[in-house]
Amino acid sequence: MSGVFSPTRAKIKERTLRTDKWWLQPAITFGVLFSFVIYATFRAFEGANYYKDHLISPFYSPCLSEACVPEATIFGWTPVSAEIFNFALSPALIILIFPLGFRMTCYYYRKAYYRAFWLSPPACAVAEPHEKYTGETRAPLILQNAHRWFFYAGLVFNVFLTYDAILSFKNIEGQWGHMSVGSLVLVVSSTLLWFYSLSCHTCRHTVGGRLKHFSKHPIRYKLWTWVSVLNHSHQQFAWYSLAGVAFADIYVRQVATGAWTNFYFF
Amino acid sequence: MARKINLRIWRGDATDGGLQDVQVEANEGEVVLDVIHRVQATQMGDLAVRWNCKAGKCGSCSMEINGKPRLACMTQVAAYGEDETITVTPLRAFPVIKDLVTDVSFNYKKAMEIPAYEPPKDLKPGEARMEQVDVERSQEFRKCIECFLCQNTCHVIRDHEENKKSFAGPRFFIRIAELDMHPLDILKNRKRTAQEEHGLGMCNITKCCTEVCPEHIKITDNAIIPMKERVVDIKYDPARMFAGLLKREKRS
């Protein structure tokens, strides 16, 4: 018997005496994240319906595979083979490890999924079901320390997705200066991704958090204070950007399959 | 206006114990510690409860109220429904001594393991000078009243007694962060010892420490995560390790 049931602790048989709905938040988190994972997996393997009339799904950008629709590539650059070991590789599978890695190692998402999926703990002062616990000290969880590498990769992805959002200001004939609902969706999605990345704890550390003397680095101190303001809402940006990316993909897919028509404002 | 409330208090010691129901009067504006004192004065003369300032500043009356780690002197009775039973137990992460009093000496042992502030060798008394922006971060951590609610709620030790030997806990991570961010502290290996000796890597940042802190110190965001990032700087960042190697090569 360990933990709250250890011999020296107060003898209380309940795992928790909390009377509030402590299970609600992890349950919602589980439901939303699980739904996203199922949808993202389906889309990653689908390998189709990711491009239509200058709109590209964020799940497939940058499109680097020889299997990519030519218009979805960056100036026709396709350095990755369409097959690996005779297995047709969806263009999304090549790149998704980076945004996925960034979110999986994100300090906020760690809290969310450790609570909701691993119940470690399910909520504060609610005894977890595991016999042993070593935290992030050994494989595979020690890999959480790679967060900053995914952060750097995430910034590069944000540049590509911003470029995609700019390209969406073309009409079907390829003329600039037009805007559709799709443009709006991609702009909102990429903007939310910038906010999510720039509010990240690693970003906060990189711009100035690692310093001992703020007074000797006034510009980095200023940057740190700005990022700190964003960092307060990192959790919100994590959810909003996830919803933004999911909706952008759904929108592009619906337009690509012909289910929805991309309405042009001008 | 006074009203009767249902209170359930854990009574016992390390060998045995259980919850006992009492009815007690509560006046408007009273906190849980007030009604515990009334029970002690009128119904349970030998009820053990640790308290001191009754102002949320000494950190003595830490206990669990309806399962949540809280200061009894800062918890309004009115926060609970009229028909709701208020259950009061001792902290569940530490050995119980009697009734609501626990043995928190684990924390004092851990405090002694943290290396003290180390100023530059040539700094004479009265010569220390620091800019406000350099000390602001550390000042947040100085608000700690050592109530040990963060230690109590941290599942690393609450749910795993065996981790107590290798895990200092959130209260001491803010102490380490405070010193590591201190502009005049010259001790070089705080980051490494935080990870290798004080168990920083065991924290999975589920933020319960921040949730229960009565001083609203952002323990996770401002101390633990920055310390984890500092550990990444020295242990898990190949680019910085390579740059450091080049620097040393250049110097030699």
Automatic annotation (TrEMBL), chain A:
The chain crosses the membrane at residues 21-42, 84-102, 149-169, 175-196. Keywords: Membrane, Transmembrane, Transmembrane helix. This is Unannotated protein. It comes from freshwater metagenome.
TrEMBL record, chain B:
Its cofactor is [3Fe-4S] cluster; [4Fe-4S] cluster; [2Fe-2S] cluster. One of its GO terms (cellular component) is plasma membrane. Keywords: 2Fe-2S, 4Fe-4S, Iron, Iron-sulfur, Metal-binding, Oxidoreductase. The keyword Iron applies. Residues 3-92 form the 2Fe-2S ferredoxin-type domain. GO terms for molecular function: 2 iron, 2 sulfur cluster binding; 4 iron, 4 sulfur cluster binding; electron transfer activity; metal ion binding; oxidoreductase activity. Signal peptide: none annotated. GO terms for biological process: respiratory electron transport chain; tricarboxylic acid cycle. InterPro entries: 2Fe-2S_ferredoxin-like_sf (IPR036010), 2Fe-2S_ferredoxin-type (IPR001041), 2Fe2S_fd_BS (IPR006058), 4Fe4S_Fe-S-bd (IPR017896), Beta-grasp_dom_sf (IPR012675), Helical_ferredxn (IPR009051), SDH/FRD_Iron-Sulfur (IPR050573), Succ_DH/fum_Rdtase_Fe-S (IPR004489). Pathway: Carbohydrate metabolism; tricarboxylic acid cycle. Belongs to the succinate dehydrogenase/fumarate reductase iron-sulfur protein family. This is Unannotated protein. It comes from freshwater metagenome.
